[in-house]
Each structure stands twice: as C-alpha cells, then as structure tokens.
Amino acid sequence: MDELGRRTILTAGLVTGLVACTTTDPAPPAPARFDPADWDDVRALFPLDPDLVHTAAFVLAAHPKPVADAIERHRAGLDADTEAYLHSHGTAEAELRKTAAVYLGGTPDQVAFTDSTTMGLGVLYSGMRLRAGQDVVTSTHDFVAHHAALDLMARRTGATVREVALYDDPRAADADEVVSRLRSAITANTRVVAITWVHSSTGVRLPVPAIAAMLADVNTGRAPEDRALLCVDGVHGFGAVDIAVADLGCDFLSSGTHKWLFGPRGTGVLWGRAWDALDPVIPTFSEGSSPGARFTPGGYHSFEHRWALREAFELHERIGRGRIAERITVQATRLKEGLAKIPSITLITPDDPDMSAGIVCCEVDGMDAFTAVVALREAGVVASVTPYAQQYLRFGPSIVTTPDQVDKVVTAARALRP
Ligand SMILES: Cc1ncc(COP(=O)(O)O)c(C=O)c1O
To answer: pTM of the predicted model, to two decimals?
Structure first.
C-alpha cells in the first residue's frame, strides 16, 4: 500500500469511527396518503410556491419532503452530539453507495460521491494521466465548467484539446451525423472524448450508447493505456432519461444529483469503470479501497445533505424512473407542440424525444431571452436563460410541473411582446 493509501485509511477512521458502526436510520415513513403513482401527491412533496409554474426547477433542486426530513434528522443529530452521530453513521456512505448503484447500474464500488457535476469533472480530469502526444476531443456544445476542467488538464499535461461541432442546426441534430462528426475528430492519439449527454445550451440529447459503440470499434486492438475514454457530463440526462448510467457504455459520467433527481443541494456522483486511468487528487476520508471510495474527495462534508441523497434515490425509484422520464417527455413534447404554433417563436430543441430530454429552448422574435424571462415571471412562469454565449429562452418541465401548467406556459409565451 502506498503512503496515500495508508494515510487515507488512518484519516477514514477520523470520520467514520475506529469501531465498526452501522447506520440503522430507518427510512422515515412517507405521509400515509402518499401515492407514488399520483402526480399530485408527488408535486405536494415539494415546498415550491404553488402560484408559480416552475420550469427552471431543474437548475437547482428544491428538496422534496423525504429529502428535507432526512436532512433535518441528520442535522439535528449532528448538532446535538456531532461526535456520536458521526460514529453511529460509520457505514452511511457505504450504504449510500449501494443505494446509488441500484439507480446507476453497475456496482457500488464504481460510485464516487462529489458535491456537484463540476467537482466530479474536476476530479476526473485533474486525476487523468496523459502521455506526451495524447490528445483530447470535445465538442463546442458543453458547459463552461467542462471546458475549463479540460483546459486545466491540458495545462498540466500539455495535451491538445480539439473542439468539434456535432451539429450546425440543433433542431435538425441527427444521431448518425453526431457519431460520424465525432469519429472524424478522433485520432490514434486520442485518449479522452469529452461530451455532454444533454446540452443545456440547446436541449439536444446525444446518442451516448451509439457514440460508445463507435468508440468500442475505435478501441479494438488498442492497449488499455491507449484506449479513447468516453467521459460524459450527464447532469441533464441523469434523473430525466430512462437508462441506467452503467448501460450508456461510457467510461466515466459526472452528474450533480441536485437537478433532475431532486436530491440534496450540493451533492453529486462520479461514476466510472476505468479508474486505473486516474490518480486521486483530493485525499479521501472514505473507508475501503474501492475506486468509488478512493475517488470520493475527503474532508468533512455537509453530511446531512450527502446522507439524505439516499432518500432522493429511494423516492425516484418509488415513483419509477420510467414513469418520471415519460412524464418529462410528455410535457416537453406538449410544450414543443404548443410553442411551434406561435409565429413569433422559433424552437431550437429537436422534436424527436430520442434527440432531446426535458430541456426545451427557443427564441422569441425581437426579444432577448432575459427580457422574456422577466415577462414570463410576471405571468407566473419561472423560466431560465441558457448560460452560454448564445442565449436562448429555456424551459424544463419535470415532476414539479403538470401538463396543464405546460399549457399555461404556452399561453404566456404567446403573449410575449417585444
Ligand atoms: C451541462 C451542465 N453541466 C454542469 C452544470 C453545473 O452543474 P453542477 O452545479 O452540478 O456543477 C450545468 C449547469 O448548472 C450544466 O448545464
């Protein structure tokens, strides 16, 4: 065992207690009348202002009742007797890893915990070993934090980062073309292929399994240290699309769990199946030698939030990943159909549910996106603006909105006047 490993185990004892303690927190009973099949019951779990239509709730989660209750329970325990509470929760993270793996697919040891998508990307690219001459292919469509993390990796390793546009017109984005444009950019030296599952800039969803299949072909015959690794910012697919992360075919996926999953704010996961390609950059406090533990950044955390992630996964599973994805698709489709009938609005996101998820972007003739957001709020609709150089008006119907509310959004959008 190396020095870092020895120290890690010593430090782990600080947090989790030197004696093996088990976490026996019972899942708090859901309200007696809660029916996970009833969307009104699901909506009632959220404290979101009922007078507003929350189509920007995916930007940062409000806490549904089971998550808020779990946070309060852990907070009270930590506040009353921090030392004892930490000791009695020595296995909380390992248990959480198992719960996460039920949702993510794969095995618990593939799951590292982070505070956000951004932290996960930082852990991934700061730890990635690149040999001289190896390069990185990414796209022009990713979030600024993703490109910043790649730039830091390039500065550290000297690698070149090449950006490729995967489509010209987002509305007409085509799965085969996306795969073929990416394929053309990959060379024998490409070590990292860095993409985003669902673009928050346009709402386009990439065909990640098809990209993974193309890369499997590219990697045939390559030595493990030469394989092109598929690294995904998954945050706007995670909790919104009905596919387990382990089935996407990627090598790494970073996602905040505080957006579409409606987990505690300041929580996230980094899932991986090629951990040998990395070194940890932040010493862990987690117990065990699994990759998930070794790549979970250490230090004491806001444990009341991290441990309450269990309730977010459990609630999501209870409602059903497939039902949630369908609910999102039904509303996003209805929204696109409604917006398409408004002459002053130009849709940006594809109609095809396979090429999109919950994000719906559009432009309003003669009105910038910020002005539109202000006007919509006056009409009771909370929308957002894409945080990119090209700014679109953006909606994200989810489990906190209803099809009727989607119709209200369309009515409010029709009334927008420059
Ligand atoms: C595609 C994408 N990745 C990452 C982020 C940042 O997520 P987090 O707050 O989990 O770091 C955002 C926006 O918040 C985003 O749109």
So the answer is: 0.93
